[in-house]
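Deviations from the work plan: none for this task. Representative record:
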Amino acid sequence: MNIQNYPLSGGYDELINADHQPRSSARALFDHLATLTAAELNERRAAVDAAIMTMGITFTIYSDGNNIDRAWPFDIIPRIMGLDEWRRIELGLRQRLTALNLFINDLYNEQSIVKDGIFPREILTSSKNFRPQCAGHMPRFGVWAHICGTDLVRDSDGTIYVLEDNLRVPSGVSYMLENRMLMKRLFPELFELCSILPVDDYTTRLHDTLAALSPRSGERPIIAVLTPGIYNSAYFEHSYLAQQMGAVLVEGSDLVVGTDNNVYMRTIDGLRRVDVIYRRIDDDFLDPEIFRPDSALGVPGLMRAWRSGNVGIANAPGAGVADDKVVYTFVPKIIRYYLDEDPIIPNVPSYLCMRDDEREFVLANLDKLVVKPANESGGYGMLIGPRASERERAQCKERVCADPRNYMAQPTLLLSTAPTLVGDGLAPRHLDLRPFVLQSENHYVTMGGLTRVALREGSLVVNSSQGGGSKDTWIVEARN
Amino acid sequence: MLSRVAENLYWMARYLERAENTARLINATGQVLLDLPRGALFGWDVLIHVAGLDRLFAQSYSRHDEASIMRFLISDESNPGSIVSCVHRARENSRTLREVLPRLAWERINALYLFVNGRSAHAIDRARRHNILDELIERRQSVVGLLMDCMSHDVAYQFIKLGRYIERADMTTRILDISAAVLVPRHQVPEDPAIGLLWMAVLKSLHAYQMYRRHFAVHVRGADVLRFLLKDPHFPRTVRYCLDEVEGSLAQLPRYGGPLKLVRIAQRRLGGLRLDGLTAASRHEYLDAVQSDLARIHAEISVEYFHQGEQNPAPLEALAAG
């Protein structure tokens, strides 16, 4: 397997430079790959696929009224980044989440950023994810978003940008951990050749982050992972994290809030108190007493218990207010306002459709821009201008004019690529990176994160629900 | 332990047990049928009676031939008692149990599911059936062995055992009832060689033939087979053995009083049974009563552990320290 014929796509490639040479962090990998034939490599890939099926690493998609379990599409060529570059990104991610938490806490309390004219009140009042029911509450450490999945992309000039902050129920971290386990099983020799930094301590750190939210001190807190259930696309991850943390995996119907405003779970011994809930269901479904009354997934009275300080909830209800693509455009200002620092990782330049002049520009340049709705995830409702049809662009224009607050636009970035095993050879495929950032008593950033890759040639959509796959992500120490 | 988790463990075990028993039953019956003369007194449809699925079968099948019955019992997803359905449900249950079960258990159950899903259609074919069902049994036994050796024998494990042994006892009574399901023509004497073959099939379907001969009797006679499979305390598929296991597991759970009382009733019924001179009709009636005992034990376990406390979330304080 050699890289002389690797068809560079013209953008930035993570592993191979413009002279068809491996970047320094990837040299050991390619030296080793050069000793393997295409047949050997395909054999390893087949072994990986078999392991994924047996281990049941799947995600669920809903199609034609059925839930289908799909094997997790995994590419065996890792994505590699040097530790020096990663350290800077890590600082940037920490800075960003610290500022976002100060921002959320401010919005639900003093609202000084609004009063000081930095953040427009109309965005707040029209925000779908601002929960007035949370106003006046101060969770422990003033932290609302304890677990954040930040999507990073690299443009053709090599600059890394934050594409979005996922602060509601970000998923994918279990795949990051499983990817590493698969690579260790299948390519153990690479872990001797390259100094790959470990990722395994995530679940321990997640446990500590959650345990710090316990209202009862001096006891081993009971932590529950609240899942919508087996038909949720991320169910695999919910059970995986519960298992790894020694937490209890619960569904809404397993929990009950007592007249004493404590949360209990139904066990064979009767009711047992729960201290911390890592919820993987959206605000809307959390508590039918407060939010959607038709929710069967949630727990009646949960908000009462939380507001009384009797249970920690991560992420806190209402934290999603900062997970909004319009709010996103203000993050650099938010960082400066609360921390008095310049952002370490830049935002992608963005245009807000609520501003007349910017909307004019967006509508006049639909063929060059990516237009995104404020509150969708999974790539839904997005227009990739240069690849859209005339009709799709016209429909997008109608949607934007009908609800300008709900749309923003960005230039189409040429996402970086990495070599991916396609047939018998390597071909470039576009990718992004989702590190996971934790904050409660302490901060923690995963070593690397989940690299998602668009497996279709030329595609820029990396979501697993839309044909994306993933790679193991290596942060490597430089070797002399 | 969460009540829902306990319930899922219990059902996972029941479904796995049922799938394996069905596979055994089919294999043993297949072997015996080969020895019977054409037009003999029982055929494949006996298996449908045993499973208690006559009505469901009649709804979707018009022919009672081997292929239809095999499809119905092995690969028909619309039959909740088919092997495919049982393994599928066991897998869905165990999926919610990944944080309780050893990781390898999930992998093996998942692999069992993938195996059954990929092969069940081939098992309709007589030539391949035996090997496929044998492998299924082997894979399921590896799950049982893994749980026995790699899972703490804690409360969670007891729920697995409860499900396994209640299902097994139930299946054993159903298999014993096979003879009542067969219409014995009046002119045939009870010790007709074909009847002997049938009792042998009963023993073989439970992998009990060898142990029966070694510990109990050389000749295969109805009353002896019945006595062995109901009352023997050592062979792990007898009703007596299963009830003893259920009793032992219950003793490790909180509030076992209610269910245990019902186990005792079932044990007494076994102890009191007189087998000599039992007619086919009274045998059927008796086995029916044992099945009802098992159903009541199941219902009591369900109320006590799976659905308790659903009506009254308070008072709570006393339990909080737990």
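The domain at 351-411 of chain A is CATH 3.30.1490.270 (Dna Ligase; domain 1).
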